[in-house]
Backbone:
């Protein structure tokens, strides 16, 4: 794959990751931070063998298009391919942060129940 072919997808700096408030934000950040700055959305769709219209939806910062329809999100089964092509792991980093946050909340809740 193009973006990560030399050394594989890289992790992004924490200061960049703090920008991500949603899954869509993480996908857009990964795209903005792609290794191959000359790669277009069309190039991404060709490398990944995805429909260009789907890629356009995945990379749009807005959840809803001008007609009021919800845009597609990057499906879970496509994350690895996307990250390999763009050359970073922003989406995985976001998901790990979300999971870690939920695990911490669960642990705190269980500890509070044990004390009560």
Residues:
């Amino acid at each position: 794959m193009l973006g990560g072919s030399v050394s594989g997808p890289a992790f992004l700096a924490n200061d960049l990751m703090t920008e991500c408030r949603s899954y869509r934000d993480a996908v857009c950040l990964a795209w903005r931070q792609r290794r191959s700055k000359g790669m277009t959305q069309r190039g991404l769709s060709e490398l990944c063998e995805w429909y260009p219209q789907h890629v356009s939806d995945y990379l749009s910062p807005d959840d809803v298009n001008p007609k009021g329809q919800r845009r597609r999100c990057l499906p879970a089964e496509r994350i690895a391919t996307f990250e390999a092509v763009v050359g970073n792991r922003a989406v995985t980093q976001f998901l790990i942060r979300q999971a870690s946050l939920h695990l911490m909340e669960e642990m705190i809740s269980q500890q509070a129940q044990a004390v009560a």
About this structure: Residues 90-115 form the longest helix (26 residues). The helical segments are 14-17, 23-32, 41-48, 52-58, 79-86, 90-115.
